Amino acid sequence: ITGESDMSQMTFEPLSGPTFGARVHGVKLTAMDDAAFRELHDNWLEYGLLIVPEQFLTREEQIAFARRFGDLEFEIAEIGNMRDDGSLRPDDGSDEMMKINRGNMGWHHDSTYMPVQAKGAVFSAEIVPQEGGATGFADMRAAYDELDDAMKARIENLRAHHSLHHSQGKVGHKTKPVKDGKVNAGGTFGGYGLHDGPVSVRPLVKVHPETGRKNLLVGRHAYDIIGMSSEESEKLLQDLVDFACQPPRIYHHQWAPGDAVIWDNRRLMHQATPWPFDQARRMWHSRIAGDPATEAAMAA
Q1: Closest CA to 197 of 108, 73, 117, 113
Q2: Distance (Å, whole) CA 66 – CA 159
Q3: What's the rounded Cα separation, in Å, for the pair 233 and 229?
Q4: Alpha-carbon span 39 to 54, nearest angstrom
Q5: Average pLDDT, whole number, for the chain?
Q6: Computed from CA positions of residues 73, 187, 284, 270, in that sequence, does the dihedral angle turn out positive or negative?
Q7: What are phi and psi of 108, to 5 degrees?
Q8: What is the side-by-side order of every strand in the sheet holding 222-223?
Q9: Helix (H, G, I), strand (E, B) or coil at 50
Q10: What percent of the chain has pLDDT over 90?
Q11: 144-176, pLDDT tens digit by residue?
């Protein structure tokens, strides 16, 4: 398939119901020319979430495609409950990846706990369970737009801390600082995000650098709003998440093998959802690095 034919065949079908998202038809992501990619990128900014079925990307193909959006924070990470040998990880509190899986069931933006927040992600499905395991997305631009004027004024200049140690602690995961946390070769979790260093501070209201629209920036990694008590901060942050993550601002994608999705992490929060942990699930996540000029953490 040539890039030119991709350009003529590619269509975007808005999701029925949510304030965001579209399914992309008539395209092979590995065979796009520059013009087709520019069209895809423009629609990614417009919709926030693009769902592209039947891609069956290899890891190398996924990394190469993700690089078209910019530098990568990390090339690829395996998400799920499978070991390299195909056996299933135990869900008995002994496996670090399963603890991260449980934490990720809270609504969040990726890498707000890092010095630079991620721009977005390419995510694909290799093995999916027979039931469960959907990924939820929430439109934080639409959520901000729907806040009343009093709440917009209240939160306009507020800043909160963001930490993976904090968010994992809330689900009972007692983390330890990791000097060189990374995604290991092959894509396995190696303590990434559990670094020992300054805690990131981010605004509750963030202007998207490419669309110019305001978005809420909250989620499970956020805590201790500067100038508030811990109790007052926790209540406000949870109230904002509860308000944001309601129809029509949410969509949960039920995966099929071969699906690929691309989401804008500056606009959308996302969450994992449970599945029977005696069933295999293997997904692949490539994280697109944010621009330090717009996505760097603030000073406390």
Answers
A1: 113
A2: 31
A3: 6
A4: 20
A5: 94
A6: negative
A7: -160, 160
A8: 200-203, 159-162, 222-223
A9: strand
A10: 88
A11: 999 999 999 999 999 999 999 999 999 999 998
Q: Strands 268-272 and 214-216, how do they pair?
A: unpaired
Q: Which residues of 24-50 are buried (b: 16+ CB within 10 A; e: fewer)?
A: beebbbeebeeebbebbeebbeebbbb
DSSP one-letter code for 30: G
Helical (H) or strand (E) element with 200: strand 200-203
Q: Does residue 1 surpass a pLDDT of 50? A: no
Pairing status of strand 72-80 against strand 282-288: antiparallel
Task: Retrieve residue 234's tokens.
Answer: 């926790």
Residue from 123, 141, 289 nearest 215 by CA? 141
CA atoms of 166 and 175, how far apart (whole Å): 9
- CA-based nearest residue to 134, from 291, 48, 255, 268: 255
Q: Distance (Å, rounded) from C-alpha 45 to C-alpha 66?
A: 15
Asked whether the beta carbons of 273 and 131 are under 8 A apart, the reply is no
The length of the chain, given as a count of residues: 300
Distance of alpha carbon 85 from alpha carbon 252, whole angstroms: 30
Q: How many CA atoms lie within 13 A of 172 on its CB side?
A: 8
What does the DSSP 8-state code read for residue 264?
Answer: E
CB 118 within 8 A of CB 290: yes
| Distance, first Cα to last Cα, the chain | 51
Do the Cβ atoms of 106 and 244 come closer than 8 Å? no
Enter the pTM of the model. Answer: 0.95
Cα 299 to chain center, whole Å?
24
The string of pLDDT tens digits covering residues 112-121 is: 999 999 999 9
3-state secondary structure (DSSP) of residue 37: helix
Quote the CA–CA distance of 94 and 2 in Å, as a whole number: 48
The percentage of residues in the chain with a pLDDT greater than 70, rounded to a whole number, is 97
Provide the pLDDT confidence category of residue 183 given band limits of 50, 70 and 90.
Answer: confident
